[in-house]
Amino acid sequence: xxxxxxxxxxxxxxxxxxxxxxxxxxxxxxxxxxxxxxxxxxxxxxxxxxxxxxxxxxxxxxxxxxxxxxxxxxxxxxxxxxxxxxxxxxxxxxxxxxxxxxxxxxxxxxxxxxxxxxxxxxxxxxxxxxxxxxxxxxxxxxxxxxxxxxxxxx
Length: 154
Description:
31% of the residues lie in helices and 27% in strands. The protein has helices spanning 35-50, 76-84, 94-105, 129-139; strands at 2-3, 6-7, 20-27, 56-62, 66-73, 111-118, 142-147. The model has no long low-confidence stretch (mean pLDDT 90).
């Protein structure tokens, strides 16, 4: 194995099927009203349908506030019900929300991930994009931003 062209010795390797703990962050701000929010609901349902029985998910809504509407759970019915009630509200402190989601999923067991469904527009965050990148790099959580619409995630 090589890293930046330099041979590296593999010190630890684990083969196995580990459970996934995932935070799904759904942007429900006013910029997502209408069709984009419908796409978020559809994508969230499809993602939840692909999780294995031993996988856990939490549902976090991003509006003017960041709210965990379903804590880490295997209860797919509760997660799907929360997705179905998603309505537009507020602005998008996206950078702040990502940091909060990383903090909320950090203590979970197994493989950890954050899936963000958003138009990528940040409004009124205290944290900068650089702070988000730094936090994500050090969190040990895989981050999957899914941008819906025309705006790139910054």
